[in-house]
Amino acid sequence: EDKVVQSPLSLVVHEGDTVTLNCSYEVTNFRSLLWYKQEKKAPTFLFMLTSSGIEKKSGRLSSILDKKELFSILNITATQTGDSAVYLCAVDRRDDKIIFGKGTRLHILP
Amino acid sequence: GAVVSQHPSRVICKSGTSVKIECRSLDFQATTMFWYRQFPKQSLMLMATSNEGSKATYEQGVEKDKFLINHASLTLSTLTVTSAHPEDSSFYICSAKRGGIGRYGYTFGSGTRLTVV
């Protein structure tokens, strides 16, 4: 059975700290790994990763994929209170289905 | 680009009634749309895959007669929760796949919070 496991499930840090969110997966027909940020409503897209070892960056956020070890990490540096959200990791399969992890609930204290 | 509009954003209905949720791709054609359900503090669970012009494909454990999906055009899919009960109260989100792999591979609607009283 396909599964995507995220850790930690929740995390509380102070503003300015750096956090690393983890995602491991066992999914058949892997096509890409996706990271989303979910605040109050629908998830917003952060990254799509298809190749191992190539870091993707967007401002203070970065992510990398290891297809051999079947995991990905999402880093957020110099965290701000606006980074508080649930971060979802998902694997996109070649049959177009997306399998989501349970998410990491991140709370940034001012 | 790649905007998906979902309506209504919030609905309260009486137990036993039916509720229709619409999902529209505004600036692209979506041959495939996906419907998810999310309980509080849980992840998104895929309910069904909606295919334009054909029957939806439901995930195991999802009642197809209760959650009716219609994908009548390349820009519109609807989810109807029939004979709703309080346990159907949840957050429902649709997503649409834009053709090809790229920045906008999957776009989510803003979600519908359904409360059945």
Feature tags:
heterodimer; A: 110 residues; mainly beta; six-stranded mixed β-sheet; five-stranded antiparallel β-sheet; 11 strands; 60% strand; B: 117 residues; seven-stranded mixed β-sheet; four-stranded antiparallel β-sheet; 0% helix; 51% strand; globular
Describe this structure in words.
The complex is a heterodimer of chains A (110) and B (117). Helix content of chain A is 0%, strand content 60%. Chain A is mainly beta and 110 residues long. Chain B is 0% helix and 51% strand. Chain B contains no helices and eleven strands.
Topology:
The complex is a heterodimer of chains A (110) and B (117).
Chain A (H helix, E strand, L loop, with lengths): L2 E5 L2 E5 L4 E8 L3 E9 L5 E6 L6 E3 L2 E6 L4 E6 L8 E9 L4 E3 L3 E6 L1
Parallel strand pairs in A: 2-11
Antiparallel strand pairs in A: 1-3, 3-8, 4-5, 4-9, 6-7, 7-8, 9-10, 9-11
Chain B lengths: L3 E4 L2 E4 L5 E7 L6 E7 L6 E7 L5 E2 L8 E7 L2 E6 L8 E8 L8 E3 L3 E5 L1
Parallel strand pairs in B: 2-11
Antiparallel strand pairs in B: 1-3, 3-8, 4-5, 4-9, 5-6, 7-8, 9-10, 9-11
Q: What is this entry, summarized?
A:
Chain A is an all-beta fold and 110 residues long. Chain A has strands at residues 3-7, 10-14, 19-26, 30-38, 44-49, 56-58, 61-66, 71-76, 85-93, 98-100, 104-109.
**Overall 3D geometry of chain A?**
globular
Tell me the span between the first and last alpha carbons of chain A.
Answer: 41 Å
Based on CA atoms alone, the radius of gyration of chain A comes out at 13 Å
> What is the residue-averaged pLDDT of chain A?
93
The residue ranges of chain B in which pLDDT falls below 50 over 5 or more consecutive positions are none
Give Rg of chain B in angstroms: 14 Å
Proportion of β residues of chain A? over 45%
Largest sheet of chain B: 7 strands, mixed
Largest sheet of chain A: 6 strands, mixed
Largest interface (CB within 8 Å) is between:
A-B, 22 and 24 residues
Provide the succession of SSEs of chain B: EEEEEEEEEEE
Mean pLDDT of chain B, nearest integer? 88
**Proportion in helices of chain A:** under 10%
Low-confidence stretches of chain A: none
Cα shape of chain B? globular
Note the total helix count of chain A: 0
Oligomerization state of this entry? heterodimer
Instruction: Quote the beta fraction of chain B.
Output: over 45%
Number of strands of chain A: 11
